[in-house]
Amino acid sequence: xxxxxxxxxxxxxxxxxxxxxxxxxxxxxxxxxxxxxxxxxxxxxxxxxxxxxxxxxxxxxxxxxxxxxxxxxxxxxxxxxxxxxxxxxxxxxxxxxxxxxxxxxxxxxxxxxxxxxxxxxxxxxxxxxxxxxxxxxxxxxxxxxxxxxxxxxxxxxxxxxxxxxxxxxxxxxxxxxxxxxxxxxxxxxxxxxxxxxxxxxxxxxxxxxxxxxxxxxxxxxxxxxxxxxxxxxxxxxxxxxxxxxxxxxxxxxxxxxxxxxxxxxxxxxxxxxxxxxxxxxxxxxxxxxxxxxxxxxxxxxxxxxxxxxxxxxxxxxxxxxxxxxxxxxxxxxxxxxxxxxxxxxxxxxxxxxxxxxxxxxxxxxxxxxxxxxxxxxxxxxxxxxxxxxxxxxxxxxxxxxxxxxxxxxxxxxxxxxxxxxxxxxxxxxxxxxxxxxxxxxxxxxxxxxxxxxxxxxxxxxxxxxxxxxxxxxxxxxxxxxxxxxxxxxxxxxxxxxxxxxxxxxxxxxxxxxxxxxxxxxxxxxxxxxxxxxxxxxxxxxxxxxxxxxxxxxxxxxxxxxxxxxxxxxxxxxxxxxxxxxxxxxxxxxxxxxxxxxxxxxxxxxx
Length: 606
Description:
By secondary structure, the protein is an alpha/beta fold. The radius of gyration is 28 Å and the shape is elongated. The protein starts with a helix and ends in a 10-residue tail after the last strand.
C-alpha cells in the first residue's frame, strides 16, 4: 500500500494540468468562502459552535433520531429501507429497479452511491445508468471516480473536458465552457424525459417532519426527483438534523463552506411521493438508509468524524490536497477512495478499515487549516493523529501491512527510552554528541534516505544540553515574571460571548434585487397594472411564443388572458419543447435572492 500511495502522490505532483486545476480551485473556493461568511450578521464561531452542538446531539442519540425520522417519513408515504452494508444497499436498489421493470436510470450526485459502488452493480445487471450532474457526467464519460466531494471534475481543465466531449460525443466545443454546458444539457434532456428511475442523495433528513433536503446548483437534482415514475434516495444514517430550525442553520453554513454561495441555486424539500392533487412527482419514493460502518465508527475514537456535513471545505483549505488532489488517495490496489482529503483520511479508515486506508492520515501537515475551515468545528488534526496512532482497532496483519517493521521496532525502543527520565535524558545527551560527530559543520542531522529525512525535509541536530538542564539555570531569574502573571479577568470569560447586533437592514426590495442580479437574474419592479406588459415585452425579446404556466387562480387576475391576447400560447401540461415557464412565488428571501416555490395543485415545478 505504501508504494502505491506514494507512487500516485508523485504522479499527481508531476501532472502539470492537475497542478493548474487544483491551484485555481483552491484560490477560487477560499476567496468565495471568505466573502460569503462575511455576510453573516454574527461571528462565525457562534454558528460553528451551535452547528457542532446540533450534530453531536444527533450522533450521541442517533437511534432515537433515526426512529423519529423514519416514523415521520413513512407516515408521509416514503418507503424506508435499511442497508447494513454496501452489498445490501446495492441489492435494495436492484430489487426496486427489477420490481418496477426499469431500464434507464438518471442519477443526481450522491457520494453514498459512489461509496457502495452502485453504478458498477447497475451496469453489470444490464441497466443504463446516466449521471446528470455536469461534473459527474464528465467523469462518467472518462471512466473516472470523483476527485472531490463537491466538485467531482476539479482535476480537469476545460481543454481536457473538450477533448473528452470530442472523443465520446463527437462534438468539438473549441474549449468554450458555455458550448460544453449546452452540449451536456442537450445530451441529458432525453435522459430526464425517458428515465424510469431517478436516484439522488440526501443532504439532510429532518427528524421532526420526515423531510428530505437536497441542495444542488443544477436543475438536474429536481428533474431526477420529479420526472421519473420511481425515485430512490440514498442517505447515510448520520445525516439527520432534529428540526427545521436546525436545518436552517445548516443551510447557512453548507453552501458558504462548499461553494462560497449564500444559498445553493436549488434547495429542495421532499416530503412524499406524488399525491392525487400534485401536478408532478414520482409514483413511489424510496429512501435507503445506509450504515456501512457508521455505527461501528460511532463507537470508535473517530466518532467526531460523523459530524461532517460533506461540504468539502477542508479539502479546499488543505495544502496537501492542493498539491495531490483526490485521485492520489488510493488503496494498495490503486483504487481511489470515495472520500479523500482531511475528512477522507478519517472517514475512510473509520468506515472501511485502518488496514486499507490508515496511511492517508500521514498525507497531512497537521497545520490546522482544515479545522479552521470546518463549518461544524470538527477537530480534524486531533482525529488525524488518532488514525496515525491506530484510532481504529488494528489486527496484527493490518499493523504489519501499514507500519513497516523498522518503524514498529523504532517506536518500541523510543517508548522504552521515554518512559524513564534518566534513560531519556541520557539518550538526548548521547544523540547530541553523536550528531556533532556525524554532522560537525551543520545544524541538521544527516540520516539515511530510506527514512525520508533529507529527501524532502531536514531533522534539526539534537542539543547536547537538554531543555531541563537549561531550565534549571534560568528558573530563579524567570520566577518573578511568572509570579506577576495575572489570571483572566471576568471579561475574558469565553462563555460570556454575545452575538454582534445585526446590521441595519437596507430596503428589502433593493436587497433582493441586488442579490438576484448578482446571481445573473433580472429584476423588474413595476405596478400591478404594468405586469402584463412587462412580461409580454420580455417574452417577445426572447422570441418565446409558448409558455408553461401555473393555473389562472394562482396568478394575478387576467394575466394569462392578456398574454394569450398578445399571441403567446399558454399551456398547463408539461411539454419538453417549451422553453419558458411562468409562475408565482410564495416568498422572496432578500438575503440570498431566493424564490420560495411550493408544490401544490395547479403549481407545477417542471
